[in-house]
Every structure is written in structure tokens, then in C-alpha cells.
Amino acid sequence: MKAPPLCAAPEAAVDAGWILSKLQRPTPSSTTFVELHDSPLLKAPLRLSGEYRRPDADTLVREVRTPYAETTTIHAGEVTIERAGKGPRTFSLARVPELSGLQASFGALLSGDRQLLEQHYRVASDGARTHWTLTLVPEDAALARKVRQIVLHGRGAELRCIETQPVQGPVQRTLLAGAARDAAGIADSGALARLCQNPS
Fold first, then answer.
1. Which residues contact 11 (CB under 8 A, 6 or more apart)?
2. What is d(CA 178, CA 31) in angstroms, rounded to the nearest whole number?
3. Minimal CA–CA distance to 157: which of 47, 21, 42?
4. pLDDT band at 188; cut points 50, 70, 90
5. 120 falls in which pLDDT band (50, 70, 90)?
6. C-beta of residue 114 within 8 angstroms of C-beta of residue 123
7. For the chain, what is the HEC assignment?
């Protein structure tokens, strides 16, 4: 008589420390992205694609390649925006708290620095290794006036999607790495939202 099959053990929950240890990347590093901007003024979400780069630990570069070309560089407390045919514009990062929060979160995530991340956000984790979320709620008052929370979705060591919930307006989704590749040819915002939230 055969023994009954063993039930698979439930997958262990992960915590923020485990997630950060898996996301840690040395510099220089880069990842492709697809970003969606919803607006009641648009018939369809504005879809941007390009690349995030960290040439060193103190610099974040966001290069949009389609539907237009634009490079945003965050370094030493300043933001520089360059567009083809126009001179670069440079201004203080303090004027744009959401970009300051972006640099802080990317820098802390990719360096595995939980202490730095918790200087800027309340951090909560959920899920298992095959599908986890990390929720960041801004502590900084200026950023909290703009952003309610940021939810990161991932699978194993891969950060696949970032959902930014502004205080006003719809969620902005940024699909990264494998999720950005999976999004090729998908135009429906609902399908992209499902791709963001269900990485398995």
C-alpha cells in the first residue's frame, strides 16, 4: 500500500530584511522600465519606456527613450533634465520632493540599506519568495503631501513593478526588468496592472 502523498509545506513569509538582501545591486547597475501615466485628460495612459541607471552610489539617471527622449539626472542635491534641442535645466532637489523620495528609495533598495530606507519611509512587507510586496509610506512631510504610499512588487531577487499612489490622482505604475519585457505589445491598462500585481 502506497503512503499518501505528502502535502507541500506552505511557503515561508518573507520580511523586509530578506527582500532588501535580495534586491541589493552593486554599482554601476541599470534596468529597463515601462511607465504608465493615467489622466482623465488622456484617451489612453501615456506609456513611457527607457532605462534607470545608477552609475555610482550617489547618482540616479532616468532615461526616457519613447515616446520622446529625455534624461533626468539626480546627483548632489540637484536635478538636471535634458531634452533634445533644448538646453539642460538644473534645479534643487528640494523643489521636487517626489524625486528626492525616488532617489532615496532606489538608493536604499539597491544598496540593501534598511536603516536609510526607514529614515524616509515606514516599511511593511508581505507575501512569500514567489510573490512579495514591500510597502513604503513617506515619513517626510513634504513627500507625504504628494505621495500616499509606494508599493513594490517582486519575485525572488527581482523587483518587477512599483505602484506609486499619489495623494491626488490615479496610481502610477512602473514595470521594471522582466516585467518591462513582458509588457512589450500590451496596451491595455488593466492587463498591465495585472502584470504588475501578479508577477508569477
1. 128, 129, 130
2. 9
3. 21
4. confident
5. confident
6. yes
7. CCCCCCCCCCCCECCHHHHHHHHCCCCCEEEEEEEEECCCCCCCCEEEEEEEEEEECCEEEEEEEECCCEEEEEECCEEEEEECCCCCEEEEHHHCHHHHHHHHHHHHHHHCCHHHHHHHEEEEEEEECCEEEEEEEECCHHHHCCEEEEEEEEECCEEEEEEEEECCCCCEEEEEHHHHHHCCCCCCHHHHHHHHHCCC
Domains defined for the chain, CATH in brackets: 16-197 (2.50.20.10)
**Predicted structure pTM score:** 0.84
